[in-house]
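ok, trying the design again with the full structure, not the truncated one.
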């Protein structure tokens, strides 16, 4: 695979391969010195035009654990602040020998646009409200681990919150359904996209109606930075209807799995501390972020046959 820009482009086979590869990377991460020479000589550039904590740091950590060189591009301290265009920025960094761009941008489609200006591989780390494929792979990996089964047939996934502005929701719905899950979304009508009728999901407006039958509860952040008008009456009203409160958490099955991609809005969608919630897998999502991103970087950057070789070395 040359690029990873969307779950659709990856497809079910690609998704399964990356999940398998990530289990080998997790093996490396359990070693006392979690580092292998797999991507020596390769340069990975993180190009983040939008803020990020876990995605950027987990990509950079993943690249370092595979012995790649890393370059970090920070919008506020670069020539973007002098008006340099995206195209000139990409061409300039490509000249420095970049093999892979990990890109996050507020506009949908930027990863496809950039791929026309460089021969390097492109990994989408979030484009507007469109796609965030590595988060979806991390989340499938985390669910697999939690339920201890490779496919999600018969698993009820409930995604709650700001579906309209969420690239995570778009990528995760595709990935979860590819692996066989049944997905329900819970949101106020103003936070649902107009095309929701074409998505492979059931829409419900009452959180209380579905909480007890949920196997995987996926809470989303209210994306106030993407809202240009008042879509909710107030934060407290939203929190009382769509937030994970202690009363709701007590109605979860003991075997349920609770997830959130971070960053959390405490007191808005999350009223419980993940450490007080035995069903929470939120910390595992962060931990798995490194193994999955190692698998993705390795897949786009290694030569044919090297993956098999690495798997054999790890399993030996
Ligand atoms: C998500 C994102 O940036 O899309 N966060 C993340 O990557 N961990 C979700 C969000 O910002 O709400």
């Amino acid at each position: 695979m040359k690029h990873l820009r969307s779950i659709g482009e990856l497809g079910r086979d690609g998704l399964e391969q990356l999940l398998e590869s990530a289990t080998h990377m997790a093996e490396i991460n359990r070693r006392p010195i979690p580092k292998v020479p797999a991507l020596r000589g390769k340069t990975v550039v993180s190009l983040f035009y939008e803020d990020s904590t876990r995605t950027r740091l987990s990509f950079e950590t993943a690249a370092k654990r595979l012995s790649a060189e890393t370059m970090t591009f920070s919008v506020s301290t670069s020539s973007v602040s002098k008006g340099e265009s995206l195209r000139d920025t990409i061409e300039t960094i490509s000249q420095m020998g970049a093999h892979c761009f990990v890109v996050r941008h507020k506009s949908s489609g930027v990863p496809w646009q950039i791929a026309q200006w460089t021969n390097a591989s492109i990994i989408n780390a979030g484009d507007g409200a469109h796609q965030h494929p590595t988060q979806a792979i991390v989340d499938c990996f985390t669910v697999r681990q939690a339920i201890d089964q490779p496919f999600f047939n018969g698993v009820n996934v409930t995604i709650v919150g700001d579906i309209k502005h969420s690239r995570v929701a778009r990528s995760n719905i595709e990935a979860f359904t590819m692996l066989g899950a049944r997905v329900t979304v819970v949101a106020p009508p103003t936070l649902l996209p107009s095309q929701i009728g074409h998505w492979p999901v059931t829409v419900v407006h009452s959180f209380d109606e579905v909480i007890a039958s949920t196997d995987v509860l996926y809470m989303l952040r209210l994306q106030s930075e993407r809202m240009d008008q008042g879509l909710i009456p107030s934060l407290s009203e939203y929190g009382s209807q769509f937030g994970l409160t202690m009363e709701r958490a007590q109605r979860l099955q003991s075997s349920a799995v609770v997830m959130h991609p971070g960053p959390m809005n405490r007191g808005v969608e999350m009223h419980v501390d993940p450490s007080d919630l035995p069903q929470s897998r939120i910390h595992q999502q962060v931990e798995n972020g490194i193994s999955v991103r190692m698998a993705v970087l390795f897949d786009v950057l290694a030569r044919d046959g090297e993956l098999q070789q690495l798997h054999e070395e790890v399993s030996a």
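Keeping the full-length input from now on. The domain at 7-131+286-305 is CATH 3.40.50.1370 (Rossmann fold).
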